[in-house]
Amino acid sequence: MNIGKSWKIKLTLLVLLLLAFAGVFLWYIWKETGGREDWDGEVIWEKKNIGGFEVQDRLIKNSKYGFFITAPEGWTIKDYDQGGIGIFSPEVNIDNIINSARDKKGCIFGLEINEYKKIKQDISTDVEDLLYQIEKISEDKNILDEENIKYEVIIIDKKQSLKRTFFIGDNEASIEIKVPSKDIIYTLKNSPIFKNDCIYYFDEVINSIHLENL
Description:
Distance between the termini: 68 Å
CATH class of the largest domain: Alpha Beta
Number of domains: 2
Order of helices and strands: HEEEEEEHEHEEEEHE
Shape: globular
CATH superfamily of the largest domain: Mog1/PsbP, alpha/beta/alpha sandwich
Radius of gyration: 21 Å
Number of strands: 12
CATH topology of the largest domain: Protein Transport Mog1p, Chain A
Largest sheet: 8 strands, antiparallel
Strand content: 25-35%
Mean pLDDT: 83
């Protein structure tokens, strides 16, 4: 083999690997910054975490953003304000959430509302991306499925929503539901899943959702 040609091939492969690494690095930075800025530091869209929840016994509501949901009987509700709402089964110790949920097979549900403001008209926000995913899955239900992730379009109080189920082997490990409305995304999570009862109770909570002013 021609040594010069061999060296050129190796150099080309090295450059391709470096470019691939750079692409992954830039994608990671984009994900970590929420896609709010482009590479020149210009703001392309804004994301606002919404607080202002009210908790009345088992009812959790945000009247301003038209969201109402009911927690299971006997569960603990914790308001993190702009960090969202945590809903915990009786087995979970609020001071040691993950360890107690794992050891006692408890359930952890999360709720958050995010509002998006479009800055650059040619750049889509998370709301627009979510609507696009819902449209594509409605046309082909398996189009976005991956090895350990299943995508589904479900109906939440007459509103098309996206459900993502993450698997470890054949077992559900986490469930995330996103409901788009105008410039808002309502997100609910069942994660991590330590027992099948958590899925049953999560479905119960999802079925209790009521949306207004959409």
